[in-house]
Amino acid sequence: MKKQIIIFIILITAFLSCEKDDICIDAITPNLIIRFYNDTLQTELKKVELDSVWAINKNGLSAYKGVSTDSIAIPLDLTENTTKYIIENNSVKDTIEFSYSRNDVFVSRSCGYKTIFDNLQISNNTNNWIKSITINNTTISDEKAAHINIYH
User: Fold this and answer.
1) Which of 23, 57, 123, 127 is in Cβ range 3.0-4.6 Å of 99 for a Cys bridge?
2) Considering the entire predicted model, what is its pTM?
3) Which segments within 22-145 are labelled E, that is strand?
């Protein structure tokens, strides 16, 4: 009988000392969502034939090499307050420089921190194939809707 009580106490102690697994299911740092629209009918989405998309001094985004799409999701630099992208459409390149402030927010112990981008602005851009740009939301905290519209 004493053996059973000791085993029971050991099992209860082991069970109570277990810690639940931490799995990160929360959102991570969001990407900048860009939608492409028709310049003449500005409510109509218009696909763009992307040759490449890359940030200056970074590797290109292979997901957008040689594709036709009406939207892209691109990461912003987590260590700087600006990111400059080159977007190539049918061998014509445009450069867009985004400026912003960064705010690190604690998500959870398993996820750590994510960065929220505030005060998004376009500090410089070229207009080779891009006709105009509209900022829909100056705070990038999620990927639920487009942050920027590009008209071409």
Assistant:
1) 123
2) 0.82
3) 32-37, 48-55, 67-69, 71-74, 82-89, 92-108, 112-125, 132-135
* The one-letter amino acid at 114: K
For residues 137 and 56, give the distance between their C-alpha atoms in angstroms, rounded to a whole number: 23
Assign 148 to helix, strand or coil. Answer: strand
Q: Is residue 143 situated within a structural domain?
A: yes
Cα 150–Cα 151–Cα 152 angle in degrees, nearest 5? 120
Domain that holds residue 129: 22-151
Residues 6+ apart with CB under 8 A from 73: 31, 32, 33, 34, 143
Does any domain span residue 2?
Answer: no
- When pLDDT is averaged across residues 66-94 and rounded to a whole number, the result is 94
Q: Which tens digits make up the pLDDT trace of 125-152? A: 899 999 999 999 999 999 999 999 999 9
- The position carrying tokens 């929220």 is 116
Give exposure, 2-37, as e/b (b: 16+ Cβ within 10 Å). eeeeeeeeeeeeeeeeeeeeeeeeeeebbbbbbbbb
Number of domains in the chain: 1
